[in-house]
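Run log, item B.
One chain of 811 residues. Sequence copied directly from the ordering sheet:
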Amino acid sequence: MRAVGGPVPDALAGDLAEGLVATVPGQVHTDLMAAGLVPDPFDGDNESLLAWIGRTTWSFSTSFAWSADGRARQELVARGLDTMATVRLNGTELGRTANQHRTYRFDVTDVLVEGANELVVEVEAPVDAAERLDVETGRRPHVNPHPFNALRKMASSYGWDWGIDVAGAGVWRPVDLESWNDVRIAAVRPLARVEAGAGVLEAHVDLAWTAAPTTSSATVSVEVAGRRREVVVDAGRTSAVVRVDVPDADLWWPRGHGAQPLYDVDVALATAGAPASDGWRGRVGFRTVELDTAPDEHGTPFTISVNGEPVYVRGANWIPDDALLTRMTPERYAASVADAVDAGMNLLRVWGGGIYESEDLYRACDEQGVLVWQDFLFACAAYSEDEPLRGEVEAEAREAVTRLSQHASLVLWNGCNENIWGYVEWGWRAPLAGRTWGAGYYTDLLPGVVAELDPLTPYSEGSPFSYGDFIHPNDPRHGTTHIWDVWNEVDYTVYRDYRSRFVAEFGFQGPPAWSTLAGVVHDEPLDPFGPQMLVHQKADDGNGKLERGLGDHLPRWSDVDGWHWATQLNQARAVAYGIEHFRSLSPLNTGAVVWQLNDNWPVVSWAAVDGCGIRKPLWHSLRRVFADRLVTVQPRDGAPAVVVHNDSAQAWAGELVVTRRGTGAGSPELARQVLVLDVPARGAVTLPLGEDVRRPGDETAELLQVTCDGTADAAFWYFVEDTRLQVLAPPQALSAVAARTPEGYEVTVEASALVKDLCLFPDRLDPAARVGTGMVTLVAGERHVFRVTSDELDERSLVRMPVLRCANDLL
């Protein structure tokens, strides 16, 4: 790898002119780090120090030996070049690429030579390329500093309001040399469906032929679930459809609705009188998917059904899990999907500013029953619909739909993220002056591609979207809603003003784990508004919004430890508050997809799991409010009432015990009511409370606690915000003891009064330490055991601040 043009620092000019070893698949940033030439871009303020990388042109070269083997056709297959690249073999230009999100295939039959061959890939400086194309295609509105919308490169690599600016270059997916005779498999779409209760696989197999094949025909065979079918195609015919009936196929279901049986699919290609010359293997699940957006008396629903059964969506938005994509591994994908599953989620939305993800993500979702909502890669910007961009968009869409159509977990294709909303409301019309902005993609090109290649999967023009002419795209009465006045402008209690049919984006910020933050921010002293801290806060006035977002809920902090705990706590409470409200609206509301599950570097953000994989307090709150069975107390007609949402396959009958208690020593019981619980499967009920329970004697010193059969977590209601609530400090409110276990430690906490939102942060002692539970509220006499995995910790520190925290600390 060499730098061949750009603002290379003088100290590195010699090394980069001479060249260094590059890893393929890989990226410039990771190669430079591996060579010890640049520091970690995630650390401190190195982001700006390394900005020159994005304004430098890079050349990658390799030599390989080749010898003719009698095959008629040789092709160089570049599965991922990032992004504006010129490809040369033995000095001959094979072509130029302009899209990170697709494969390019070059005929090199007449370019290869016996013996040594040299391949060179030169990549234009990505920031310069974006700026050049922005001018050439006509400037169009976009968020963030760089015109990422001018080319088909991962938008968030140019930075986002949670993401680092590491726009780089590289050969980020493999490059292969393929040699073949007569015919090869060009693509396979194994579309699995259910007809009259039986499984049907319709395998669409695309074929590519040489100009002068030596055979008159080819045989395409497909095997699934022990059943095999084949068809014979004449030479030159470029497609075949093979149907395999699987009458005893078990249905694939989302998690919480059934099992996830998956079936291997083997496709083989053979020519007359010869063994199989090419093959393909994939995996399918048999299910049906429908999206209901038919108008009703309330507006327009947004209901996803699998196998005819509506699914209440409990999900999160997914961003690329590492800003440096090629560092991702199957294990990291599996861990992130486990973060979703363990939190009770059943859907991930692969957001449009990232990538069409690795097969590792989709396979994990198939196996775990996590539904996938897949955005096409358009986000928060206007896009040219003219050539050459239009051709690239169609090519990438066709490849993505073809590749992902096999996955049982895929339930929605979505045209864009916020672009229709942007055109309507963000002041785009004047600067566009009548030029195209992407509407033709979302309403014509993309739905056409989906209808042709993956007709079994629903398509939506965008998110948010209202599914009707002359309706604002972000009208909560219709379709999907994004709620961003909360966080940006108003208090999180405003969530209750929304009676949204489906919430596809909403969220609230909080800092990452202490060890994650302290590992990259080196301000002395550590301060929320320190210079390096602000490098790791990408949202506009983010830390100001964190401070103002405390509102009347929590007092302002007195030190940085207090800032960290208060803002993490407020994030967890805000999002949980919204989800409990949305679920209490079921069946009017059919789902909530929080922004966001994950981070791609260490940053203050909306994520539930930070860039080092540590689950924040928000994650623990999500596990409670995304449980199959939720009990929540909500205001109804000016008074608190109990709302129960039973999103499980079994009816739920039993008793709810509602007690009005004091917050002080002993948490004395002041009133009690027993409610009969009888909720159908996938149903919800609202239960009013008696006046003696719901009316406090002293609102500053009382609470409601709801305990019930069939759920682990009690529900709580407070009559005032914490800033007015009377609570005891931890030494009087609780006792704690730590003990060694074979896996690490157990920390047992026993309450002698109300203890709100108890959390343990062992990463403050060991960044590798993890704890299984958090955001636990106890009344007097209750106890909780935290289980910690770690090799060696100080037991005394485990039971003290700042490792053991609760809301009482702040009050």
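Observations after the first pass:
- Residues 1 and 20 are 5 Å apart (CA to CA).
- DSSP finds 20 helices and 42 strands in the chain.
Flagged for discussion on Thursday.
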